[in-house]
Structure formats: C-alpha cells, structure tokens
Write a structure and sequence with these properties.
The structure holds two protein chains of two kinds.
Chain A lengths: L3 E4 L2 E4 L5 E7 L7 E6 L6 E5 L3 E2 L7 E6 L2 E6 L8 E7 L6 E2 L3 E5 L1
Parallel strand pairs in A: 2-11
Antiparallel strand pairs in A: 1-3, 3-8, 4-5, 4-9, 5-6, 7-8, 9-10, 9-11
Chain B lengths: L2 E5 L2 E3 L5 E8 L8 E6 L5 E7 L6 E3 L7 E6 L4 E6 L8 E7 L9 E5 L2
Parallel strand pairs in B: 2-10
Antiparallel strand pairs in B: 1-3, 3-8, 4-5, 4-9, 5-6, 7-8, 9-10
The chains are: A mainly beta, B mainly beta.
C-alpha cells in the first residue's frame, strides 16, 4: 500500500498567518490527491481535489499544489473558522490511504 | 437534499459480527462508487473499502481484508458493511462516503468490548 507521510503533526498559528502542510507519498501518485478539513465531532469536508483544484464553495485562501510524491496545502491568511485537523488522501491506487493528519490550533 | 445516513452501530463483543447500513438520498445511487472510512476515538482517518458504481469490483484496506465485506442494494439505495471477527481495534466511528468524496454521512459508532 502507498504510505502517505503528512507533516507537521500539529502547528500553532495566529489569525492572518500563512499555513503550509505537506504530504509525501511513498511512490508517485501523479496528482491523485485530495485535502480534507475535519472539525471535532463532524465528518471531514473536501477542500481540494486532484492536488490543486478547489472544491466548489471552499474559500480561495485554500490552495493545493504538487505532483508525483510531494504535495502542499496552503492556507493564506488563516481565519478563526480554519482551526481544525487537515488530512491528505491519495486516490491513485487501492487501497487508498490518508495521511496522519495535521492539527491547526490557535497560537 | 443529498444525504448519506449510517446506522447499525453499537456495542459488540470481540469475535462477533455486525452489519452497518448507509441509506442514500438526493442523488443517483447507481452512478457513484461508495466508500467506507473509519476513525478510532481521538485518531486519524482510515480508508476501509470501496464498491464501484456497478458493483463490479470491491477493494479493501489490509486491516479489514477477509473480515469485512462491502455490498449495496441499488433498489434500496443502501450501502452495507458486513463486519465479522471484530477486534478491539475496530472500535471507531464509521463513515460512508460518496465516490467523489463530496458527501459524507454523519458516522455511526462501533464499540468492540467484552
């Protein structure tokens, strides 16, 4: 199975900060990667698909990049509602695999 | 309104079986692959299984292969996860997810405990 290594595991940031989260795949996965946001007690929400395509309704401060093995989720100008846990998911090959998650909390 | 609603969770003893259901509404059930994802308490997300839109193929995570079976009934717009030989580490909230990962159910909690 493809392993997804996500970093950092957690970070503290202030409102207005730029936040970067990375995922590295154990083998090339083209651009078959999505990013998800999860708040406590809720189901995850799709933010980005195909590495860089913004899901409808998601604010433009979220962006994704990368191809092959290295991927990045960037949140420009962090907002209070962005404090959550973020996950990457490779959908290149079964079994699909998630990264371990990155918790973003208030500094 | 597009919805996925899971049911069937509860407390079950180790080595026993349990079947989860996920009823879909508001979209063409037959047009999408359907997935199961779980989350142990305080832990991350784990992809478990998928059944393709036409039921032609199913794939599983290694952690559940041979113990869990995904199926669906198009006439009832319902997805299932048959779980057997349950282990303590299967304790989690189980989500069903539409194939584009835009739509998630609210989750159903399965607790494996003696």
């Amino acid at each position: 199975a493809i392993q997804m290594t996500q970093s950092p595991a957690s970070l503290s940031a202030s409102v207005g900060d730029r936040v970067t989260i990375t995922c590295r795949a154990s083998q090339g996965i083209r651009d078959d990667l999505g990013w998800y946001q999860q708040k406590p007690g809720k189901a995850p929400k799709l933010l980005i698909y195909a590495s860089s395509r913004l899901q409808s309704g998601v604010p433009s401060r979220f962006s994704g990049s990368g191809s092959g093995t290295d991927f990045t989720l960037t949140i420009n100008s962090l907002q209070p509602e962005d404090y959550a846990t973020y996950y990457c998911l490779q959908d290149y090959d079964y079994p699909w695999t998630f990264g371990q998650g990155t918790r973003v909390d208030i500094k | 309104q597009v919805h996925l609603v899971e049911s069937g969770g509860g407390v079950v003893q180790p080595r026993r079986s349990l079947r989860l259901s996920c009823e879909a509404s508001g979209f063409s059930f037959r047009s999408f692959a359907l997935h199961w994802v779980r989350q142990a308490p305080g832990k991350g997300l784990e992809w478990l299984a998928v059944i393709l839109y036409d039921g032609s193929n199913r794939f599983y995570a290694d952690s559940v292969k041979g113990r869990f079976t995904v199926s669906k009934d198009d006439s009832k717009n319902t997805l299932y996860l048959q779980m057997s030989n349950l282990r303590l580490e299967d304790t989690a909230t189980y989500f069903c997810v539409r194939g584009d990962f835009e739509i998630w159910g609210q989750g159903t909690l399965v607790t494996v405990s003696s």
